[in-house]
């Protein structure tokens, strides 16, 4: 646990941090943090997420313990709008350095570093595509044509993502797979059927089905998303 104290000036510039002994591994993370103005300038130097385990590998799939706070957060996010009678079997953190670097670089290119431009969205896939997605990310085989155009479709609610996938997945192996993704949606615009890669407004990273209350986000660039967690679940 990290304890932050702002001091009498109530300014982050004069804040200090107390690190408990069991969290001493976070000291290096804190020392390497850059001022916010440097982050906004989009330097290509950055840190991987603080919860990532250092293994030296480019790709690691980390099984989260059920009692882990990270597990609880993602599990609750899933169950908020999950398919009826869904039971989570496992949650795995995806640590893919190449995909994450590409994601951060693309956010820099589009000036989308601030958190307000990023959402956690759901992407459901067949079991045969699970490994490909976490290893190489998106490619044209994952594109779908819809009312918002031809692109990669992400959903605000896990149940909607699951139902859409069921329409094309005829396999009955008992388990279902869904990614909780970080998506740099930017400032979405209303989608239409004419939109596709190469035919969208400049600097636009996403379009939506409903500009007032979006439920589906469509992106057209493979690198404005990162597959943060894989959830395996079944329907009881």
Description of the molecule:
With 236 residues, this protein is of the alpha+beta class. The chain has a single domain, classed as Phosphoenolpyruvate Carboxykinase, domain 3 (Alpha-Beta Complex), CATH 3.90.228.10. The protein is built from 6 helices and 12 strands. β10 and β11 form a beta hairpin. The longest helix is centred in the middle third of the chain and has 13 residues. It is globular. The N terminus is likely disordered. This is PARP catalytic domain-containing protein.
What does the secondary structure layout of this molecule look like, with pairings?
Layout: E1 2-5, E2 16-19, H1 27-31, H2 36-40, E3 59-63, H3 69-79, E4 86-96, H4 97-109, E5 118-125, H5 130-136, E6 144-146, E7 149-155, H6 158-166, E8 176-184, E9 189-190, E10 206-208, E11 216-219, E12 225-235
Parallel strand pairs: 9-10
Antiparallel strand pairs: 1-2, 3-4, 4-12, 5-8, 6-7, 7-11, 8-12, 10-11
């Amino acid at each position: 646990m990290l304890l932050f104290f702002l001091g009498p000036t109530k300014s982050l510039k004069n804040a200090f941090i107390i690190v408990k002994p069991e969290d001493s591994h976070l000291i290096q993370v804190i020392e390497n943090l850059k001022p916010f103005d440097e982050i906004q300038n989009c330097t290509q130097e950055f840190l991987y997420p603080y919860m990532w385990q250092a293994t030296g590998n480019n790709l690691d799939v980390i099984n989260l313990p059920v009692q882990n706070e990270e597990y609880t957060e993602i599990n609750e996010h899933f169950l908020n709008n999950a398919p009826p009678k869904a039971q989570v079997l496992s949650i795995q953190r995806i640590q893919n350095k190449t995909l994450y670097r590409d994601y951060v670089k693309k956010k820099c290119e589009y000036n989308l570093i601030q958190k307000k431009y990023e959402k956690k969205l759901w992407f459901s896939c067949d079991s045969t595509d699970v490994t490909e997605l976490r290893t190489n990310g998106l490619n044209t085989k994952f594109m779908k044509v819809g009312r918002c155009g031809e692109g990669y479709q992400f959903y605000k609610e896990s149940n909607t993502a699951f139902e859409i996938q069921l329409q094309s997945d005829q396999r009955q192996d008992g388990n279902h797979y869904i990614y909780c993704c970080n998506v740099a949606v930017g400032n979405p615009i209303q989608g239409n059927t004419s939109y596709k890669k190469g035919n969208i407004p400049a600097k636009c990273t996403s379009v939506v089905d409903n500009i007032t209350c979006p439920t589906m986000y469509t992106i057209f660039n493979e690198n404005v998303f990162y597959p943060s967690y894989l959830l395996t679940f079944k329907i009881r």
